[in-house]
Design brief:
Elements: H1 2-13, H2 20-23, E1 24-27, E2 35-38, E3 43-47, H3 54-74, H4 82-95, H5 101-106, H6 115-131, H7 136-151, H8 164-182
Parallel strand pairs: 1-3
Antiparallel strand pairs: 2-3
Helix pairs in contact: 1-3, 1-8, 3-4, 4-6, 4-7, 6-7
Enzyme class: hydrolase
GO molecular function: metal ion binding; metalloendopeptidase activity
Pfam families: Peptidase_M76
Length: 184
């Protein structure tokens, strides 16, 4: 998957190599959660009982790898600072494909102007409420306070990948970043 390839390469370049047998786990999970990132172990958990399709698994892996990337590069205080969590959830919803037009149509959510931003905001709030015992108002306030900065933080993609083709381009661009600067 080009999304995962890019994130794994970016993590490696940031000094956080990922080992499949160490950093990924498949487990049965409660409720309708599809996955999670355990910052204490730097492990991505995939909820095998709640993931039914390869495309869904790819999105979950990408979403959780964004959290792992943020943990690596930004030293996120997951449990001390709700704004840090909000920022990573915004980035994950924005960059993982969670809010693509096709996914939103499948959820029977349609909209034109500003729909992507609305989806990202709503999914970030839902994710915060799923992992932290905070009020909806607290989650909304945290998301709103950091939304613009975090929505516009496109690292390591450099763009919002709306499709696998976009993700492949972003990966190719990422691989070539150093080449341009080396020629200056």
């Amino acid at each position: 998957d080009p999304y995962a390839q890019l994130l794994l390469e970016a993590m490696k370049q940031s000094g956080c190599t990922v080992f499949n047998d160490r950093h990924f786990a498949c487990e049965n999970c409660d409720g309708c959660v599809s996955g999670g990132f355990d910052s204490a172990t730097s492990q991505i958990v995939l909820c095998q009982n709640n993931i039914r399709h390869q495309s869904h698994m790819n999105r979950v892996v990408t979403h959780e790898l964004i959290h792992a990337f943020d943990h690596c590069r930004a030293h996120v205080e997951w449990f001390k600072n709700v704004k840090h969590l909000a920022c990573s959830e915004i980035r994950a919803a924005n960059l993982s494909g969670d809010c693509t037009l096709m996914n939103e149509i499948a959820r029977f959510k349609f909209g034109l102007k500003g729909h992507h931003q609305t989806c990202v905001r709503d999914r970030a709030i839902r994710s915060i409420l799923a992992v932290r015992k905070v009020s909806k108002e607290t989650a909304e306030k945290a998301v709103d306070e950091v939304f613009d900065a975090c929505f516009n933080d496109l690292e390591p993609f450099g763009r919002i990948p709306h499709s696998k083709t976009d993700a492949k381009r972003a990966y190719r661009d990422f691989q070539n970043r150093g080449r341009y600067n080396a020629n200056l």
